[in-house]
């Protein structure tokens, strides 16, 4: 079945350590997104990519980095510069890079990765 | 700037009762899109509905219905004859034409009591 796979489901980070969250999709979608979810704050956009080898900062990009070398993959690195990384991270994809309202089913989401600090 | 307000943080109802989740939005754009997503305990967000600003018809899908009113900037979601499987966090979201960003509300946690 087509979908989005995020791994790992749970991740622990030590102080000063970078960690990378994986996101893979087999939906042949052009656009991919990373969101951060904190209790009581809804979802906030970290980075998004409309095409391969291009990505844009979202609302809370500081302390994070991404790459988009393949259409199917959009890994997120949480760097040591991110001082409060404990959160639930969701990856999403959408068929078109023309705006999330363009398609009738704009974004598919993965199951998420829960990141905690040791 | 766009904003979505879900004033109800948590709601609990007894199974088979009807329940309405409120969503109020703010935008200066004339062409915009509204969404509802469901987040069950497993964590993934499940798309429920998309509505564009030019379509104010109410929508019904099984036990789910949506009431879009531009006059009050609201896009409310009603579950009829609720079931335990409806227990989840529900998010309302907003974007405008050509934009890649979704603005989410803070979500409403719905608990259906058997």
In short:
The complex is a heterodimer of chains A (118) and B (114). Chain A has 118 residues and is mainly beta.
Characterise this structure.
The complex is a heterodimer of chains A (118) and B (114). With 118 residues, chain A is mainly beta. Helix content of chain A is 0%, strand content 47%. In chain A, strands 2, 4, 5, 6, 9, 10 and 11 form a seven-stranded mixed beta sheet that branches. Chain B is globular, with a radius of gyration of 14 Å. In chain B, strands 2, 5, 6, 10, 11 and 12 form a six-stranded mixed beta sheet that branches. With 114 residues, chain B is an all-beta fold. In chain B, strand 8 (64-69) and strand 9 (74-79) form a beta hairpin. Chain B is 0% helix and 54% strand.
Strand content of chain A: over 45%
What is the multimeric organization of the chains shown?
heterodimer
**General form of chain B:** globular
Rounded to an integer in angstroms, the radius of gyration calculated over CA atoms of chain A is 13 Å
How far is the N terminus from the C terminus of chain A?
A: 35 Å
Structural class of chain B: mainly beta
The count of strands of chain A amounts to 11
Percentage of residues assigned to helices of chain A: under 10%
Number of helices of chain A: 0
Range of helix content of chain B: under 10%
Please name the two chains that share the biggest interface, counting residues whose Cβ lies under 8 Å from a Cβ on the partner chain: A-B, 32 and 27 residues
Contiguous low-pLDDT stretches of chain A (5 residues minimum) are none
Itemize the secondary structure elements and their pairings:
The complex is a heterodimer of chains A (118) and B (114).
Chain A: E1 4-7, E2 10-13, E3 19-25, E4 31-37, E5 43-51, E6 54-57, E7 64-66, E8 76-78, E9 87-94, E10 108-109, E11 113-117
Parallel strand pairs in A: 2-11
Antiparallel strand pairs in A: 1-3, 3-8, 4-5, 4-9, 5-6, 7-8, 9-10, 9-11
Chain B: E1 3-5, E2 10-14, E3 19-21, E4 24-26, E5 32-39, E6 46-52, E7 59-61, E8 64-69, E9 74-79, E10 88-96, E11 103-104, E12 108-113
Parallel strand pairs in B: 2-12
Antiparallel strand pairs in B: 1-4, 3-9, 5-6, 5-10, 7-8, 8-9, 10-11, 10-12
């Amino acid at each position: 079945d087509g979908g989005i796979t995020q791994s790992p489901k749970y991740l622990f980070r030590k102080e000063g350590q970078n960690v990378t969250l994986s996101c893979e999709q087999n939906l042949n979608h052009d656009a991919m997104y990373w969101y951060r979810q904190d209790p009581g704050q809804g979802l906030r956009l970290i980075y998004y990519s409309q095409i391969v080898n291009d990505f844009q900062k979202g609302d809370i990009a500081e302390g994070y980095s991404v790459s988009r070398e393949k259409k199917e993959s959009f890994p997120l690195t949480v760097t040591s510069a991110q001082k409060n990384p404990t959160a639930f991270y969701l990856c999403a994809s959408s068929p078109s890079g023309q705006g999330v309202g363009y398609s009738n089913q704009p974004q598919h989401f993965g199951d998420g990765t829960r990141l905690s600090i040791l | 700037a766009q904003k979505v307000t879900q004033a109800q943080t948590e709601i609990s109802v007894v199974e088979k009762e009807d329940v309405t989740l409120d969503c109020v939005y703010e935008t200066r754009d004339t062409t915009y899109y509204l969404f509802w997503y469901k987040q069950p305990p497993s964590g993934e967000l499940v798309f429920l509905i998309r509505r564009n600003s030019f379509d104010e018809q109410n929508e019904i899908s099984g036990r789910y219905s949506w009431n879009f009113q531009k006059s009050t900037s609201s896009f409310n979601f009603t579950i009829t004859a609720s079931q335990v499987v409806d227990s989840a966090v529900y998010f309302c979201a907003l974007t405008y034409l050509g934009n890649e960003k979704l603005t989410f509300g803070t979500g409403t946690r719905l608990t259906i009591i058997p």
